[in-house]
Amino acid sequence: MTCQSKRPEAICALFLSRNQTFIFPLLFNSLYRTVATVVELKRIGIDRKGEVRLEDLLQLARRSPEASRAGAIVTFSGIVRGYTHEGKKVEKLELEAYDELAEKALEKISSDLRSRPGVVDVLIHHSVGAFSVGEDLVYVVVLADSRENAFSTAREAVERYKKEAPLWKKEHLADGTSHWVEE
Questions:
Q1: What's the per-residue H, E or C state across the chain?
Q2: For the chain, how many structural domains are there in total?
Q3: Across residues 162-181, what is the average pLDDT?
Q4: Cβ distance 157 to 124 under 8 Å?
Q5: Residues 90 and 174 in one domain
Q6: Are residues 1 and 68 in the same domain?
Q7: Tens of pLDDT along 92-131?
């Protein structure tokens, strides 16, 4: 794999995703970057930290063939809490998943919820890796015909992925201890 650019100010950068490797030139004297390959974003995913942005999911949802049926878009962003439920200070959180089964669980949740009257689309992406307090862990985006349907569907999506997707959290506390979290 090679990086080709006719511009002398370009250097080659390597981008690694879970399944593919891309090389593209970065143009430092320009306000843009030239990307050789565009990664297709899926509606559902277990991702490495930083691979997916909420803005990208919102754009994907708005491009849905059925988006014109929606009267509301509701988003949920789950972040790393700075304290445990018992009030102990959290330094970082590690998240692990059984990727294939977790993606199947998220797809089932999305499919079940999309079959409801008034629900247009449900996108769910959960990240894995090591996270600091305040960093994003999960995104849920719901398009629905009304705000009532959108909010209730988003809440159910969150409650269901917490129970159905094989995801594990390990809290690292300020006192130097760590433990796996059961919810």
A1: CCCCCCCCCEEEEEEECCCCEEEEEEECCCCCCCCCCCCCCCCEEEEECCCCCHHHHHHHHHCCCCHHHCCEEEEEEEECCCECCCCCEEEEEEEEECHHHHHHHHHHHHHHHHCCCCEEEEEEEEEEEEEECCCEEEEEEEEECCHHHHHHHHHHHHHHHHHHCCEEEEEEECCCCEEEECC
A2: 2
A3: 96
A4: yes
A5: yes
A6: no
A7: 999 999 999 999 999 999 999 999 999 999 999 999 999 9
The structure's pTM equals 0.78
Residues 67 and 33 grouped into a single domain = no
Question: Does the pLDDT value for residue 22 go beyond 70?
Answer: no
**Residue 72 structural domain:** 44-181
CA dihedral 113, 119, 120, 123 (to 10 degrees): -40
Provide mean pLDDT across the span 14-21: 44
Regarding whether 60 and 127 lie in a shared domain, the answer is yes
